[in-house]
Specification:
Blueprint (H helix, E strand, L loop, with lengths): L9 E2 L2 E2 L7 H4 L1 H41 L5 E9 L5 E9 L5 E6 L10 H9 L2 E6 L9 E2 L2 E2 L7 H20 L7 E6 L1 H12 L3 E7 L4 E2 L2 E2 L12 E6 L3 H13 L4 E6 L8 H4 L2 H11 L3
Length: about 290
């Protein structure tokens, strides 16, 4: 008798055939053809499955790369802005594909440059922000003044305070690019947060501040006395519980605030923009807070 299908004994997927006597022997030719046909169908199905797997393995990664591209739908523009003392201020602007609802300027910490914000640019643009991230004077590419190379390590307090003037030139450049300065916000980390406070004290255009790990004083850039003057500017203070100086400074600033000021403290000891990595929901909360202001 011929056995095939579920009742057949198999070696590596190929059926064995057994011949009995009598009527079964006369049906051998017909049953053999049926089993061979089934074999061919299984092989063809396997071939098609392998082919589809290969095609999908090629197409899907390409689709993912396109979807995950941080530049998708974002117009990037290199900034090179001459300022009063001859320095060329460098940075980048990122304009979303859809009409933007507000402009956000990002100020990095001591010793960093504008690229510390790179992981968050796409999300900010998707939220509708025209984003500008600069290299503070003495950092990154913002180091050339005439024939002189300036480095932040040699800065005195007066050098740091020139950043306020730099942001004024940046604001003019953003206006020419069509940025919406009716809703204009600053977000800074560490000394960049302190500089954002001092700039907002002199610039009525600033509608809100997000301050990551500010200090009462960094490198002579003090904000304790100036902070209460921001009576009409909403402020979000962000710190880590284990970042002792920043946490203590934020507590003092919160007590001295004369306006709408919110303090959010997160576990760990991360400083500045690193808080967004160690407490991932913190960045989303910043977006939600900013959304309330426009």
């Amino acid at each position: 008798m011929l056995l095939c299908g579920e009742n057949a004994d198999h070696d590596f997927g190929f059926p064995r055939f057994f011949i009995g006597g009598g009527a079964e022997k006369r049906r051998w030719g017909f049953n053999e053809r049926i089993c061979l046909l089934r074999q061919k169908m299984r092989r063809r199905s396997l071939y098609i499955a392998c082919l589809l797997t290969c095609i999908l393995s090629f197409l899907l990664p390409c689709a993912c790369r396109k979807a995950d591209s941080p530049d998708a739908g974002i117009t990037k523009q290199i900034l090179q802005i001459p300022v009063a003392d001859g320095l060329i201020l460098h940075g980048m602007t990122y304009q979303p594909a859809q009409p933007h609802v507000a402009t956000l300027v990002l100020l990095h910490r001591l010793g960093a440059d504008h690229t510390v914000w790179d992981p968050y640019i796409r999300s900010l643009c998707q939220a509708g922000y025209f984003v500008a991230a600069i290299d503070l004077r003495g950092h990154g590419e913002s180091t050339q003044r005439h024939d002189e190379t300036m480095r932040y390590r040699n800065f005195k307090t007066a050098d740091w305070l020139r950043v306020k003037s730099d942001l004024g030139y940046l604001e003019k450049a953003l206006r020419k690019e069509g940025a919406n300065l009716g809703n204009y916000f600053l977000m800074g980390e560490s000394i960049g947060a302190n500089l954002a406070v001092l700039s907002a004290c002199e610039d009525p255009e600033v509608q809100g501040l997000v301050l990551l790990s500010p200090g009462l004083s960094y490198r002579g850039v003090s904000i304790e006395e100036e902070f209460p003057a921001l009576k009409k500017t909403p402020i979000l203070l962000i710190t880590s519980e284990g970042d002792a100086y920043a946490a203590s400074s934020c507590s003092t600033l919160k007590k001295n605030a004369s306006n709408f000021c919110e303090l959010r403290s997160y576990p760990g000891a991360a400083h500045g923009v690193d808080i967004f990595t160690t407490s991932q929901h913190s960045f989303l909360q910043v977006l939600q807070w900013l959304e309330m202001l426009h």
